[in-house]
UniProtKB/TrEMBL annotation:
The keyword Ligase does not apply. GO terms for cellular component: plasma membrane. The chain crosses the membrane at residues 149-170, 182-200, 235-258, 270-292, 304-322, 362-383, 395-416. PANTHER family: GUSTATORY RECEPTOR (PTHR21421), GUSTATORY RECEPTOR 5A FOR TREHALOSE-RELATED (PTHR21421:SF29). Keywords: Cell membrane, Membrane, Receptor, Transmembrane, Transmembrane helix. Belongs to the insect chemoreceptor superfamily. Gustatory receptor (GR) family. Gr5a subfamily. It is a multi-pass membrane protein. This is Gustatory receptor 5a for trehalose isoform X1. InterPro entries: Gustatory_rcpt (IPR009318). It comes from the Eukaryota. It is found in: Cell membrane. Its main location: membrane.
Amino acid sequence: MHKSYLNYTLLKQIVRYLKAKQITELENDDGRKYSVKRFLTGQPQQRRKRLQIINGILPAPRKLSKRQTTIAVDEKQELTKELYEQSIHPKVRGIRRGTRADFIHNGSFHEAVGPLLVIAQCFCLMPVRGILAASPKGLSFRWKSFRTWYCILYTLVTIADTGLTINMVVKGVLDVRNIEPLIFHANILLASIGFLRLAAKWPQLMRKWQRVERHMPPFQSWREREALAVRVHKVTFVLITLSLTEHLLSTISAIHFANYCPSRVDPIESYFMTVVSQIFFVFDYSTWLAWFGKILNVLMTFGWSYMDVFLMIIAIGLSSLFEQVQRSLERVKGQVMPESFWTRKRLQYRLICDLIEQVDSAVSAITVLSFANNLYFVCIQLLKSMNTMPSVAHFVYFYASLCFLLARTLAVSLYLSEVNDRSREPLKIIKKVPKEGFHPEVDRLAHEIGMDTVALTGLKFFNITRGLVLTVAGTIVTYELVLIQFHEDQNLWNCN
């Protein structure tokens, strides 16, 4: 009875959905509609035609190409599968007990990046709705939503805080080290604006990504299907944990400094006067303003690290698409394959390249901001390393922060350059194609891979390849040698 009831419920949902979506059949010139009842019951007819799903629009009768027919049938099967899963595991508001379906990955980038976007929204970034939906069809962005409003409010507060920082820096001594708070605040402000603009493009970008994933070779095992999500979650967990650890060490160092150079009788007030000095440079001390400034400082510190984490996850997702194509080629390495096989592989490769161009146009501004931010702070931290460390706590925090910054900068460069590395891997398989299986499509694919530079860029100013790592390292050394000429050993705990 339970199984029959489920089948009946599923049948009702399918009928309701097909009526709403106007599933029609493009037959001969008469344009006669195929009834939903006959489609569901499977009654035979003289000449059965393919179906096409059209959202609310009834097209003129015409013949469908093989590719259009395949896409239409795939969409119908996917929608039917979603309805079946919803009938078996209906959505329940609030906390519920996990099921096996909650731990099965479908291999999509939308599913893998969902938890990362949840973390971002906790820190006033990426106000997109439906980030945990089953498919990108549930994604949406609205200016009139609570998520967008508090992200805009965070941006406005950041603008005000940046203005206070500019006021404090201008009235002090201008130096390459003293403008560090200004660079930090300006960087976070530009990043928050960049992520807000990206959020408006995110739903369409993810739908484009899903269309590309549908044309990729199928996964051969559950391990391949979950590989992307596992890798994304591991990288996110490690970097976020290291970022929180670095911030905790920074807090300990600031507390130690507040005790060493107390500006007020109360040690807690001395700590807040040190952490949010730009606010109390203008306003008198108050407890609520101190806690407000500290919360804002935590949000900005997370946004500072989130830029690099987000770019690395984007690069991992794009690289995984090339990896799917590469695995399918390795399974037929050295074999004689028909020309249609290589045509399909070339089209898959071109779809990935088109997706990379669209993703790059959306995130390239954040990429430039990330590289400029890392370059500046690496130079400043290396310059500060020549000073004498006043205490063990300060020594531990400073070198832990420096190592984390260097590792993060290197990781961003390597992960983003992996897109370019993966795009050239099919050449290894093409070189081993037998003479009998060498078709014009093979030559076309090899020519596209060899001549095109497939890589993420920084606003088209530079391509992020593996050679860029050495370029960045050489730039850091050059700037460091220049800064050393003007370096004077400073007391890092100068109470004045």
